[in-house]
From TrEMBL:
Main location (coarse class): endoplasmic reticulum
One Gene Ontology cellular component annotation held by this UniProt entry: endoplasmic reticulum membrane
Catalytic activity, EC: 2.1.1.17, 2.1.1.71
Subcellular location: Endoplasmic reticulum membrane
Lipid biosynthesis in keyword set: yes
Sorted UniProt keywords: Endoplasmic reticulum, Lipid biosynthesis, Lipid metabolism, Membrane, Methyltransferase, Mitochondrion, Phospholipid biosynthesis, Phospholipid metabolism, S-adenosyl-L-methionine, Transferase, Transmembrane, Transmembrane helix
GO biological process, one term: methylation
Membrane topology (UniProt): Multi-pass membrane protein
Gene3D superfamilies linked: 1.20.120.1630
Transmembrane segments: 20-38, 58-80, 127-148
Gene Ontology molecular function terms on file: phosphatidyl-N-methylethanolamine N-methyltransferase activity; phosphatidylethanolamine N-methyltransferase activity
Alphabetical list of InterPro entries matching this protein: PEMT/MFAP (IPR024960), Phopholipid_MeTrfase (IPR007318)
Protein name, UniProt field: Phosphatidylethanolamine N-methyltransferase
């Protein structure tokens, strides 16, 4: 959807502005995330536990991983803001410069890895083999997204720099 918007600006035109379109897409993404998290939890609850993971050490390890993941997700959102988090650059809403402060100083794509860590921690806390499998699906999906998003975003900012130099 974001690439289609970048090519056509159809959402921005249809909704009256790039900011409105980005906020609408961001809201849809948030709602879909709630559905995904609910389905993830229901899948874990409906499946048997893995006895080897049904222990205090696994629970507290999962809790720690969940906490670190939450830190990465929340700090990424605070560093990027709503439009930076929800593909604003595809709508022409560009930041002045690439964010390099925490958590981006620690790893690339901290929002994606943090979200994956949240699911991993949640799975360990519930000793859920289904959760671990679904966490792997989430990690693979995010990896594919990063392969498409990273170079595309770099290109958007490269074009911005070219435009600024030619002025």
């Amino acid at each position: 959807v974001a690439r289609w918007e970048h090519k056509t600006r159809a959402l921005s035109r249809g909704l009256g502005s790039p900011h409105t379109a980005c906020y609408c897409l961001g809201t849809v993404i948030l709602l879909l995330n709630c559905v995904r998290s609910h389905c993830f939890t229901e899948a874990m609850k409906s499946q048997p536990k893995l006895e080897g993971l049904d222990s205090h050490w696994a629970y507290y390890s999962g809790l720690a991983i969940l906490a670190v993941g939450t830190l990465f997700v929340v700090s990424s959102f605070l560093a990027l803001g709503f439009t930076g988090t929800f593909l604003g650059d595809y709508f022409g809403i560009l930041m002045e410069a690439k964010v390099t402060s925490f958590p981006f100083s620690v790893l690339d794509n901290p929002m994606y890895w943090g979200s994956t860590a949240v699911y991993l921690g949640w799975s360990l806390m519930h000793a859920s083999p289904a959760g671990l499998l679904l966490t792997a699906v989430v990690a693979i999906s995010y990896t594919v997204a990063m392969l498409y998003e990273g170079p595309f975003t770099e290109d958007i900012y490269r074009q911005k720099q070219k435009g600024a130099k030619s002025k």
